[in-house]
Amino acid sequence: VQLQACGGGLVQAGASLRLSCVVSGRAFSRLLVGWFRQAPGKEREFVAVISRSGTSTYFTDSVKGRFTISGDNAKNTVYLQMNSLKAEDTAVYYCAADRVYSSWPPHITDYDYWGQGSLVTVSS
Question: How does strand 77-82 pair with strand 17-24?
């Protein structure tokens, strides 16, 4: 399984960005996909996750009401729509896939595959 994250960039506070995570190498519908982020000097943290069916989502508190996550099975892609961006959202964003689906929401250690990261910089 390979994951390719893209869509990051430099934006001003209050703007929007949409990240894409393209999954290849395994049946997309069998994978649970999540987004994480890592700011400079900080640990990687969970942002959002979407279930295999796409009917369930879960977000960390700091992004609830601003971020949405969705999937497109035809394109093997999961999107993270980020609205009302804040300076504290600045980080490298990673997508990851869980093939076992042992818990909800999955712990960071449950993810089996990781993408390379996409940098999001929000200027205040």
Answer: antiparallel
4-36 confidence digits (pLDDT tens): 999 999 999 999 999 999 999 877 788 899 999
How many CB atoms sit inside 10 A of residue 85's CB? Answer: 22
Cis peptide before 105 (omega within 30 of 0): yes
Three-state SS letters, the chain? CEEEEECCEEEECCCCEEEEEEEECCCHHHCEEEEEEECCCCCCEEEEEECCCCCCEEECHHHCCCEEEEEEHHHCEEEEEECCCCHHHCEEEEEEEECCCCCCCCCHHHCCEECCCEEEEEEC
Burial of 54 (0-12, 13-18, 19+ CB in 10 A): middle
Nearest CA among 21, 11, 34, 7 for reference residue 89: 11
